[in-house]
Each structure stands twice: as C-alpha cells, then as structure tokens.
Amino acid sequence: MPRMLKMEIGILNIKTHPHEPKKYANLFTDLFKIEEPVKIHGTVWGLPRFITAITADKPEEGLMGTFYKFTQINPNDPWLDLKKRETILNAEGEAIPQVESFKKPNAKEIEFAFYPDGHLFFFNNKMMSPGYAQKMIQNLCERQEIKRAYGTVDVEIVSSSEAIEKILKIPTLTKLYITFSRPNADVLNGRKRKLLEKMENENVRRLNQEMISEKGEGIIPDEDTQALMALATTNGRVFAVGYDGETRVEESTDPYPEVIRETYDPEKTTFLRALVNYSSDALSRFVARG
User: Fold this and answer.
1) CA 265 → CA 8, 59, 122, 273, distances in Å?
2) 141 neighbors 148 (Cβ within 8 angstroms)
3) Which residues contact 4 (CB under 8 A, 6 or more apart)?
4) In terms of Cα–Cα distance, which of 151, 212, 172 is closest to 23?
5) Around Cβ 249, how many Cβ atoms within 10 Å?
6) What is the pLDDT along the chain (290 residues), one digit of tens a residue?
7) pTM for this one?
8) How far apart are CA 120 and CA 115, in angstroms?
9) Are 229 and 177 a contacting pair, CB within 8 Å?
10) Where are the beta strands (DSSP E) in 4-147?
C-alpha cells in the first residue's frame, strides 16, 4: 500500500478590471519578476520564487510555481548564546550579526496554481494561512510598477458557504455587514448578475452594506441580500450580530476559509502537480460562485 500524504489547499480570488485572461497572466508573470522581499506580518516576509505555464506556451490557461515565506531578523537586535545565557555583543555593546544579511531563517517553500480565466489562486494552506497569503499577494500588487501597469488589484479570501448558513441560523439577527469588491459579472447569472450589473453601471468597485434591525425585531434577509452574502464568500466578507434568546451571538466568514482537503502519492507525483490536478478539477465550481 502506498503511503498517501495529506494536503490542504486554500483559495484566493484576485481581481483587476477588465477581466481578461491575458491581463491576469501578465500580472502574475510580472509579480514573479519582483526580486525584493515583501512584508507579510511582523517578522514574516515573502518572496516569489518561480512561475511557469501549466501547459507549455499557454500561460493564459494556467500558471504554477512556488514562493517563499521566511523570518526577517532585525540586524540591530542581538543574538542569544544559550550556553552562556548572554547576548552576543561587541565591546561597544552593539549586536554582532551571526550570519550574512542575505541569509534568512525559517524558510518555507509554498506551492501554488493560478488560473487567469477564473482569476483564482490555489496554494498550500498547510504552509501558509489564507490571511498571510492574501497579505503577501496584496502587498506585491501595491508596488508602484504593478499599480501603474494594472491599476487596483483586489485580493479576497474565498470563504466556505458554511459561514453563511451559520449566520442565517441566528434566531434574532440584529446587525448584518456585507462588504465585497466587484466580482466578474461574466460568470454570473440570475439575481447575482443583476446586482453586479448595477454596480458596473454605477462605477462601484467596492460595496459596503450595513443593516440594523428595528429594536426588538430581527433582520430577515431576502433573496437579494442572500445573493450579496453569497457573493461575499468569494469577494469579501460578512459579519453578523444577533441573539439566541438572551445570549449575544457573533458570526463571520473570517473563521471559515474554504479549504480543499485531499491526499496524494509522493511516489507518483509531486505536491505541486497534485495541487494543479485538484485545483483544476475544482476551478469551475468556485468560478460559478462569482
């Protein structure tokens, strides 16, 4: 019996306008030309490593590659000698660097697959949380050379529909906050498409909707509101406050990022190739959500 390894795949929705596969392929190619590390959070930094077309000479169909996360050490902070239980300082009391500044600790290589047509980014969720992945890509997209070429790029965590189910089950829903950036209307239909066409006609890039109930009553989300909530699972977030009897209840999409859990045989394939296979199979399902 082969020893199957577990894998977890997180998903980001990356958007700029207009939604053109060639533009998205060029965006990611340019992101992975950046040679300077980008701060993610605290001492955690990221750096693109390599990118290539999933199918040779067809980058618009899909891209795959890896990036690094690592710990950025403050060169002004001293190292600790555990044997002596002393900080390592020179005669002037200044920190003595123990490694060259271009060497970084705690490096992790993280695999990804990106599909320009659906602008969805699938990555190794075991090596990096969705929040950190979102921050890294967003900060890369904030670089001036990227903004000049591609304009504003929105990076959203794809959330599980489980969060919306939990919100709708709150017995008395008193506050509801929905925020999201404009999705790709080309893949939507019905009520969702009408809502997005309205945003496009009014030149709205990001929608923030706040709903507060009458005192002593609860919000009853209609079909339009539920459609907005569903769109927010792939394009933003939903936060709700309510009551179950006398107990205050808070629910949000934040704790429920979408995660694909699968296994692969390391003797037959690599993690990256397995990620590509599983993400390509799941792509249409998430694109359809908007």
Assistant:
1) 14, 27, 19, 11
2) no
3) 263, 264, 265
4) 151
5) 18
6) 678 999 999 999 999 988 899 999 999 999 999 999 999 999 999 999 999 999 999 999 999 999 999 999 988 899 999 999 999 999 888 998 888 888 999 999 999 999 999 999 999 999 999 999 999 999 999 999 999 999 999 999 999 989 999 999 999 999 999 998 887 765 666 677 777 778 878 888 888 999 999 887 899 999 889 988 988 999 999 999 999 999 999 999 999 999 999 999 999 999 999 999 999 999 988 887 76
7) 0.90
8) 6
9) no
10) 5-15, 38-41, 44-53, 63-71, 80-81, 86-87, 108-115, 120-124
Q: Which two tokens stand for residue 120?
A: 């969805």
Q: Which residue has the tokens 């930094």?
A: 45
Distance CA 218, CA 38 (A): 44
Amino acid 142 reads E
DSSP characters for 157-208? EPBPTHHHHHHHT-SEEEEEEEEEE---GGG--HHHHHHHHHHHHTT-SEEE
- Tallying the residues shown for the chain, one arrives at 290
